[in-house]
Amino acid sequence: MLNQLSPTLIRRRLTSLFPTELIEDIARERDVVQRDRKIDITMLVWTLIMGFAVDGEARTIAGFQRAYSAATNQTVARSSFYDRFTPALAALLSDLLEHALEEVVVPHTIAPQFELFRDVLIADATVLRLHRLLDAFPATHPGQSGAKLHVVQNATKQTIEQFQLTDERTHESSQLRTGSWLRSRLLLFDLGFYSFRRFALIDENGGFFLSRLKSNANPLIVGERRKWRGRAISLPERRLRDVLGDLSREIIDVTVEIEFKRRAYAGKQSTDSMEFRVVGVRNEDTDDYHLYVTNLPDEFTPRQVGALYGLRWEVELVFRELKSLYGLEKFQTSDPAIVELLVVAALLTLTVSRALLGVFQELFPETVFPRERWAKTFRSLAQLILDDLAQSLGHPPPNLSELMFRDARQPEKSRLLLSERVAEAFRRRSSA
């Protein structure tokens, strides 16, 4: 089985995803390439991608510089390296991320019913706490800074479909646009995106949605979607919350009428109504119902609907990977532009990791690669992968003794070590 694993397998997949010609062409378009060419732009891009996975201080610009020097065996002045972190470089990374998101597909089959959908999407957002006070990213609490990363995760392809970075105060609901792009797609979201008008727009655009039902929602039941034997309680023409306490059935599957307000037009806002499906699955531990509102067809049973909503955890795993493994919150910069650049670099790291996972899943379809275990393995090998890429691009192997000397020596002669400060104090007293 392992004879399929060529030593160049990883390098070939990564360089096919981001060929040198592609990086250089976009760099020229974005005016990133400098005339003196002291820094290899292709290796700088790969350093930002792989360096984000490396342990230690690689989330700082100084850490990226060390990773670059180790891979290329090239000494670069700190000022020269810092000067490359510009909006143009951020634009280059964004273009590469857009390219990768169209190319990367991780094999993932959930169930035959999913052929009904073009994609299964999960919308969510997470707060990134910034360690320095930045006016561009005000937080919900005074005296703090916080950014919010808004993501639409594609659970079918296991990649990110859309992303947006805002300040912490921006509500996630404002960043999700409905429209024709949702046709034949299923959208899962939590209560932060809850809106009856949004549900209606998704349905009118030919899409599907699934959300928890808010605890204060009490829609009118207009029909039951399955028949019950015996003397079952009749539900139509009654309010949902008014009958929940009288029910002992394991599941609820009803059609409800929901009223909502349309968007204001010409100063007027009209009220409308639509019929949706509400599904309830009894929780044995709490002896109450988990209620969901959706427009999914009846071929999805109530228990399948409840299990399907659990797929929303996929995006939480992505956030945990970005934060705990790639240190997304460990920003030590006072420049908002660099914050945005590093967020895009982290998303590129995640996407490259998924691209490699897709290769291994295709080669070994019977082998299970747990997501978090894969991410930790990828992180532990990131510097080796970066070194291999550098050598394939013509850079010599690193001079380890030179790297050790350059990084470990005292950077300023005027800065005395503790023993030297003590010795200096005794010398002064003796001369006095």
Commentary on this structure:
- One of its GO terms (biological process) is DNA transposition.
- Belongs to the transposase 11 family.
- Residues 117-350 form the Transposase IS4-like domain.
- This is IS4-like element ISH8A family transposase.
- It holds the Pfam family DDE_Tnp_1.
- The protein is an alpha+beta fold.
- The protein contains 15 helices and 9 strands.
- The chain has a 9-stranded mixed sheet with strand order 3-2-1-4-5-9-8-7-6, sandwiched between helices.
- The longest helix is centred in the last third of the chain and has 28 residues, at 336-363.
- It is elongated.
- The mean pLDDT is 86.
Key descriptive features of the protein:
432 residues, alpha+beta, 9 strands, 18% strand, elongated, transposase activity
Task: Give a short summary of the structure.
It comes from Halarchaeum salinum. This protein has 432 residues and is of the alpha+beta class.
Tell me the total number of β-strands.
Answer: 9
Order of helices and strands: HHHHHHEEEEHEEHEEEHHHHHHH
Strand content: 15-25%
Taking the sheet with the most strands, its summary is: 9 strands, mixed
Overall, the morphology is elongated
- Helices and strands: which structural class? alpha+beta
Strand order of the largest sheet: 3-2-1-4-5-9-8-7-6
Radius of gyration equals 27 Å
User: Could you name the ranges where pLDDT drops below 50 across 5 or more consecutive residues?
Assistant: none
Count of alpha/pi helices: 15
| End-to-end gap | 77 Å
Mean pLDDT: 86
The percentage helix is 25-40%
